[in-house]
Amino acid sequence: xALEKCQTEWDEIEKEYQQLQETHKxxxxxxxxxxxxxxxxxxxxxxxxxxxxxxKHSLHKCALTSDEKQSEQLKDIESQIKDxxxxxxxxxxxxxxxxxxxxxxxxxxxxxxxLSNQAKFAYKDEYEKFKLYLTIILMxxxxxxxxxxxxxxxxxxxxxxxxxxxxxxxxxxxxxxxxGSRIKGWWVLHHYVSTFxxxxxxxxxxxxxxxxxxxxxxxxSIYQSFLQFLQYYYQSGCLYRLRALGxxxxxxxxxxxxxxxxxxxxxxxxxxxxxGHFWQLYNAITLFTLANHEDCKEWQVxxxxxxxxxxxxxxxxxxxxxxxxxxxxxxxxxxxxx
Amino acid sequence: MSSxxxxxxxxxxxxxxxxxxxxxxxxxxxxxxxxxxxxxKRFSSSISQQKKSLKDISRSVQKCRKGLSEEEAKPLDDIRxxxxxxxxxxxxxxxxxxxxxxxxxxxxxxxxxxxxxNKQSKTAYKDEYERFKLYVTVILxxxxxxxxxxxxxxxxxxxxxxxxxxxxxxxxxxxxxxxxxGSRIKGWWVAHHYISTFxxxxxxxxxxxxxxxxxRNQxxxxSMYQSFLQLLQYYYQSGCLYRLKALGxxxxxxxxxxxxxxxxxxxxxxxxxxxxxGHFWQLFNGISLYLMSQLPECVEWxxxxxxxxxxxxxxxxxFTTLAVVRHKMHQKNQAKAKTQ
Lengths: 338, 340
What we know:
Chain B: Belongs to the TMEM120 family. The complex is a heterodimer. By secondary structure, chain A is an all-alpha fold. Chain A has 2 domains: about 20-90; about 115-335, no CATH class. Chain A contains 9 helices and no strands. In chain A, helix 1 packs antiparallel against helix 2 (about 70-90) and helix 6 (about 185-205) packs antiparallel against helix 9. The relative contact order of chain A is 0.07. Chain B is extended and about 70 Å long. Chain B contains 9 helices and no strands. Chain B has helices at about 5-65, 70-95, 105-110, 120-150, 155-180, 190-205, 210-245, 270-295, 300-340. Chain B folds into 2 domains: about 10-95; about 115-340, no CATH class. Classes of the chains: A mainly alpha, B mainly alpha.
């Protein structure tokens, strides 16, 4: 009878459920053990860190009163300390930790450490894909605003999307850094500055000044998106090759600039990059000229001019530094060969 | 404390030895991590399997139930209630497993796991959320006061509006994390924050002009009242929640909300008039904006859009609160009927 069938089915399920409860108990136990191990590991690492810091202090004091041989020793120890700090950074990438200021503000105290290499790599891939898709959407959005719609509303939507995009990038990058990715300096700051820029663009009211700058800004956005797309395409191929050769870290990301590893095959991107930078300079100069215009009463004009100038300087000087380093290296090679 | 070279070298050796211990501990940790990850996966899949079986048997029970008398169907009803109980148990169990993020969190954060794995951290996270709300509400109150009475620049207004947008966005993010961790915040109170984000965003884009100035003071006064009200709510609700949690009558992850909930009848009824006043202020804002949009000099789309938003906020808030009041009255009536 159907009733009996149901009863038998239920008994089966009950049996499996008992097993499940057992697994649950074991899991919770192991989880607790893991948590206490995590705490031990974290505190051991912080203790070592502190010890190394104190040692460095003592080293510096000693370095003043040491002879030739001792100096060598001290220098050796100092470089070993630096190596250790790298090792700790990598170890902590697998331990839950307190979030930095930015993540703390936005997310609070939830731990964002991904606990396996696989998960970290998957997260990085997801970040790259997110950047790619949004870049394409932004490119089409800018084209639509420039060629089809000429309303402040669609411009606002585009600007809000930009603000949201850069904010989200900063959050995801903070998470990546918490997981051991070594994104540095200007490339992180760059996104905060871009968020601010898009925010200010957002508040710029409709007017003759706005209309004068609008087309230039939208064309610039289209070029930026196209350039980021190019970068992503070529950089990811190059990174893949270099990772396979073991020459780059698994968590290295594609960036919006030029980095030292890109000399191996991506040099052709440099002119495109510099063109983008000079467009930023051109935007800044245009805005400063507009700010001096007699009709101009919006504070946004001057503020945007300043921001574009900061972006230009940051991008240009950072890229120039990479070129400069390469030229130096080439010179040294030539000197050695002679 | 200066030390000579030999002391430094000795210190270095000690640190080196400790470093090897740290490496060992870390290695053990990575091993255990691997073990727990595998166990997690197994456990996760067993739960999904059980859930599926429960669904299947639920369907069979439903079929069997047809055409049976009360007496005969008793064992089936028994199974049904056990299934329901089981589902609750699984919900509690899954709170300790990593889970996929919903659409919103996936979009913003990606697939990082946001499950806090023990009760202590969940409660700590909730407390942090409440504190965050409190601090930013105070900042918003002060800033709105500044804009209303002291400075009158569009720039400072823009800063206030950006802060509002950021505040509501961050609230929605943190609330999504809380929901992911088992907090039962429902329906309107979540939607409410998304709408407020949108409203603040639209206010942000409203250009300087005659109509903006017509509405500005009203909006700033309203913002001050809102912040004040939220402070009141936080203060009284957290005290009340604390008491009720101690009595075991509320769930640990229940939050203070911007409305009125059923548990608030025990001592917080005095807040109701303040709340309703806030709701009617929202209605008033909506109507003012609607009237302004009918003026001949109104060219900004923001006016009617903000009007719509305020109306939606009013209706959502008012009717949700009204539902709580009606429910209470219904309960009272039932209690009266029973005693008669």
